[in-house]
TrEMBL record, chain A:
Residues annotated as domain RNA polymerase sigma factor 70 region 4 type: 103-153
Molecular function terms from GO: DNA binding; sigma factor activity
Pfam family, one: Sigma70_r2
Family: Belongs to the sigma-70 factor family. ECF subfamily.
Residues of the RNA polymerase sigma-70 region domain: 11-75
GO biological process: DNA-templated transcription initiation
Name this protein carries in UniProt: RNA polymerase sigma factor
Domain of life of the native organism: Bacteria
Keywords: Sigma factor, Transcription, Transcription regulation
UniProtKB/TrEMBL annotation, chain B:
InterPro entries named in the record: NepR
Protein name per the record: Anti-sigma factor NepR domain-containing protein
Superkingdom assignment: Bacteria
Domain Anti-sigma factor NepR: 12-44
Native organism: Puniceibacterium antarcticum
Length: 185, 54
């Protein structure tokens, strides 16, 4: 009856797409990657150990897909249309403050490894250890990637402390999170 | 020391923004093609060794 771990895959679809999108920054490419990963996950379910973190397992498949595609394509795969980013970031202007367009632009300038580390640890809530396992590198490597990624973002966005403080005030947060309403609950 | 505090605060600001960007992506509706694909895969599996067809 129940017990096929593959039935859980569907729950991770939004996260899988979000991760694909942050790697590729290209909607069409991201969805193709998700599709490939789903087929792989389905056929290689034996390599999943029930009881372990399925999302981490799926993310690992996806990132392997991404990096092997990138190798095949000889480097420059991503950032072809930029349409997706633009559509995501139509937030009202808020003079002088950090805007999501800026953040997206800065984020896109990180290298793949830094962006990946930051998404895994900073956004998706994986531990350094989990992220290290998924990326097949040492924990210290993940730490230094996330640190460098944050430093680079801060630099790209000219984030000095004055701005940073403004960023966290209520008005700015309301602007930033403007389009998140009913769906969170 | 003040620098360390700044750095910590910076990281926090960045992570908060990151989470919002990520959340925006999570909130997107999953295209039907993926749900279709999954149900297709599930149906195919009936041809294999499982008794659970259809």
């Amino acid at each position: 009856m129940s017990g096929d771990p593959r039935d859980e895959i569907v729950e991770h679809l939004p996260a899988l797409r979000a991760f694909a999108l942050s790697l590729t920054r290209n909607g069409a490419l991201a969805d193709d990657m998700v599709q490939d990963s789903l087929v792989k996950a389905w056929t290689k379910i034996d390599s999943y150990q029930p009881g372990t973190n399925m999302r981490a397992w799926l993310f690992t498949i996806l990132r392997n897909t991404y990096y092997s595609n990138r190798r095949k394509a000889g480097r420059e795969v991503a950032d072809v249309d930029g349409v997706y980013t633009a559509s995501l970031s139509e937030k009202p202007a808020h003079d002088g403050r950090l805007q999501m367009t800026d953040f997206h632009a800065a984020f896109a300038k990180l290298n793949d490894e830094q962006r990946e580390a930051l998404i895994l640890v900073g956004a998706s809530g994986f531990s350094y250890e989990e992220a290290a396992g998924m990326c097949g590198v040492a924990v210290g490597t993940i730490k230094s990637r996330t640190n460098r990624a944050r430093a680079r973002l801060a630099e790209l966005m000219h984030l000095d402390m004055g701005e940073a403080l403004e960023m966290t005030d209520g008005a700015t947060l309301a602007v930033i999170s403007g389009n998140r309403t009913a769906s969170v609950g | 020391m003040a620098q360390d505090r700044n750095k910590a605060q910076q990281s926090q600001v960045i992570d908060e923004n990151l989470k919002r960007v990520y959340q925006d992506m999570l909130d997107e509706k999953v295209p039907d093609r993926f749900l279709d694909l999954l149900s297709q895969l599930k149906n195919q599996q009936g041809d294999g060794n499982h008794g659970d067809t259809k």
